[in-house]
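From the methods appendix. Each design record in this collection lists the tokenized structure first, followed by the designed amino acid sequence. Records were kept in a plain field format so they could be parsed without special tools. The example shown here is representative of the layout used throughout.

RECORD:
FOLD TOKENS (100 positions):
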């Protein structure tokens, strides 16, 4: 399946929950060492209110998996980078996300 792209590094296979797209675009614009971000499946949750929260969870073969919480939903984010967890969390904070 071909992925639609927004820019050239934000791959859009699914829709993106409210508030997260702007943070991802800011993250990619400010950090050229992030190769790509692929948003995953959206699921409803009860505790996702207020500002966009992002939790970096586990390393993958080419980067990190993160969970974004916003607007009553959670969405998986697959971030392709060589950075460590702390560097990625700092970049996410700089893009406007609350890192939990």
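DESIGN:
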């Amino acid at each position: 399946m071909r992925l639609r792209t927004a820019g050239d590094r934000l791959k859009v296979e699914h829709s993106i929950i409210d508030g997260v797209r702007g943070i991802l675009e800011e993250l990619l614009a400010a950090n050229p060492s992030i190769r790509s971000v692929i948003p995953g499946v959206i699921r409803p949750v009860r505790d996702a209110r207020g500002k966009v929260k992002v939790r970096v969870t586990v390393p993958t073969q080419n980067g990190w998996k993160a969970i974004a919480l916003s607007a009553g939903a959670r969405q998986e984010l697959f971030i392709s980078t060589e950075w460590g967890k702390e560097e990625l969390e700092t970049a996410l904070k700089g893009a406007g996300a609350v890192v939990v």
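APPENDIX NOTE: The chain has one domain: 4-99.
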